[in-house]
Every structure is written in structure tokens, then in C-alpha cells.
Amino acid sequence: MVESVIMASVDSPAAKKYDIVVFGASGFTGQYVVDEVARIAEDEGLKWAVSGRSMDKIQKVLSESSGRTGKQLEETPIIIADTSSPNSLLEMAEQTKLVLNCVGPYRFYGEQVVKACIEGKAHHLDISGEPQFLEKMQLLYNAKAKEAGVAIIGAVGFDSIPAEMGLRFTHEQFSGGQLSNVESFFSTYSGPEGGAVNTGTLESAIHGFAHAKELKPLRRSLYPDPMPKYDYRLPKRSVLCYSKEVNKWCLPFPGSDKSVVTRTLRNLLSTERIEKPIEFTPFYASSSIGQALGIMVFGVIFALMTSFSFGQSLLMKYPHIFSFGTFRKGGPSKKQIDATSFSMTFVGHGYDTVDKDRSGQKPNKTVVTKVAGPEPGYVTTPICMVQCGVALLKSQDKICLAGGVLTPGAAFWNSDLIERLQKRNMVFTKVSESTL
User: Fold this and answer.
1) Peptide bond into 105 cis (omega under 30)
2) 0.70 exceeded by the pTM?
3) What confidence score (pLDDT) does residue 4 get?
4) CA 178, CA 54: separation in Å to the nearest integer?
5) CA angle, 170 as apex, 435 and 352 as ends, to 5°?
6) Which of 76, 168, 316, 378 is the most exposed, having the fewest neighbouring CB atoms within 10 Å of its CB?
7) Which residue, 423, 424, 395, is CA-closest to 151?
8) pLDDT for residue 10 is more than 70
């Protein structure tokens, strides 16, 4: 394996028992990550272990995962670790090259693991969609992670990996030209029983909205200088609009995509991997105006209820009622998971030539791309997380980093991650191209 600068100060392979440890293996998402590691570990030649605070629960997960994957997992090493015990986290980190952290909400349980991984010189990946946590980690630990020579990479699940790699894929289609604006349109497709999301995701969202005021001062500290000006800004869409590009009703997407992609673009500009900033605007797209209006109603209810503690408690106690069945304790059934898929369409605007001075000039080239895959929360997310981990361990020659707290796009922009994802049932396609 080719070693790069990112691994320079990490303990030698002989000092690390494992390539990967799945922390939070008995959690709702963690069990699916265990499945995904089990499926690819032998082919990738990976030594791995699972970790959590309950031996009985982890053994149960390994037994059930054996049934789901057909792999013999009963002898998989188990490391007992708990976020309330810093020593146990450090002992876990010291045994592995990489920790896949599945324990959320990360606002409460993430920082302890990040600190342990830096001290124990293990790379750290998480699937957080919490901007406050992600940006706070960058502010507090970027320098320390660089000094330790480890990568701390957040948001490596759905929806940020499709957004980040979809942006990169779209950027590639402008070879010889210049991408200036991207709109993404996310859609889900479910079977007759619909879809569902486990309440852990809802809990993270509740705390994120309730503490949204933290972001402005955090970002001022993280980025004191403004983003360079865009060459061209697309006309602003109304809150509810019809997009002729995807023939669907669209709403602003409330997830972490925009904040994660913005941090990626800042990194790409500072490392001169792109020459100009790219305007990125994400949307949720629905074929039904009724569904779109229902989402708007939920959004209003959610915003109001997260503004006071009693409302937050009600949302957590009765998630199925207030979310019209979208969030439920225990998450989706296997039948629902198997019948659900997603697509994310990217409409990229730009220019057919490279020019450093074209302020205000309207784009003359449009490229439409699409990223599609299986159920986003518990199939695509484990695929993304595990393949990010494998890329980090196996493709060091394509990841030119010196460690630090990074976004997925910043870490994997020049890597083979897209090719790896395509081998695991995610599809990247170029839909169309036109030039005025």
C-alpha cells in the first residue's frame, strides 16, 4: 500500500491491530454499517473489529448480521468503549487505523471520540448532518489533527456524499470549461408502504434547529474572510417553485448539504484545485404539489416546536404524529428499506471556456447529471461511510492531504471514491449537455 503524507505520523501498521473499528455497532445505523463492512472486508483484505458499551448487544448484532450477510461474524473482535469513559475511547483508537463513528447525536457524543482519535492517532469518519458539530470540530481540532497526521472527516453518509461527489462529477463534465452554478434536486421513491426514518435523525435535527443561533458566531471565527464573489448568481427561486429542469415541485433542502459543500469549496479554492467559487443551491423535489405542501406544513410545525423545550419533548415523544409518519421509533421495516431509493439531479451552469475575468457574464453551457442509489438512510449511508473509509486506507496516493478536520469533498476530490461507490450500487450518469 502506498503511504502518503497523511499517514506520516500515524503509528506503524504493526502497532495497530485493526484497519477499521465500527464504534456504535449496536445502534440503529451502526448495525447496517457492520453489515456493509462484513460484505467488503475479505475482498479488501481488512482486519476489523466492532465497538460499543454493551457486550450482549454487540454479540446480538454480530449474530443477526451473520444471518443478513451470510458471513461468519461470531469471532469478530469486540472492543468495549463508552463515550462517558475517555480512557476506553483512547484504548479503542490506539488499536485501529480508522474509527467509523456511528454514535449520535454528535452534538452530545461526538467530540469525545474525535479527541480520542487524535490522541490515539486514528482517522475518524462520522455520518453527522449537524453543521454546529461539524464546524465546531474544524475550529477546535483542525490544527491538532494535522499535527497528529490524522484525518477527521464528518458527514460521510447520506446526504452529503451524493451531494459532494455529485458536485465533483458535474465539475468533471466541464473539462476545458468552467462550472459556475449548481442546483441539486433530491427525490425519494418508496413502495406502497412508504418510507420512514429512525428517531435518532430527528433528535439530531431538533437540537440543530434549537441551537441554530450558534452557527453565525462559529462561522465568523472559522472563516473571518468572506467567500470570493461569484462570476454569476442564478435568479433566486421562490420557497415553493416548479422546476422545469426536473419537472417537479421544489422546496429548499433543509439538510447540511449547503454548509458542507460551502466548506468544501473554500478548501478547494485555498488549495487551488478550483479557480473560481461555485454557487451551490440544494432543493427537495416532489412530483406532487400536495406532498410539497405537506412538507412545508411540517417544516413550520417543526420550526415552532423546536423553539421551546416543551415542543422539543413533544416531537421526541410523538414523532410519528408530528411528522405525519415520516419519523418513527424503530425506523423503517426491511420491506420499506428494500422498496425505497433516491436520486439527486444536478443542473450545472457554466462556460465552455476558461476565463479569469467574466464577472456578471451569463453562463453559456449547461450540464445535467444524476446520482442514484438504494434507500438513503440505512443502505446508501453505510455504503458511503465504508467506501470513504476504504478509500482513505487504500488510495493514499490519490488523496493529497496532510491531515486535519475536513469535509468529504475536500478529502476525496481527487480520489477514486466515485468509482468505489459505483461498484456498490450507486450510479453516476451524465444526463445531458447543451451550449448556447
Assistant:
1) yes
2) yes
3) 31
4) 52
5) 30
6) 316
7) 395
8) no
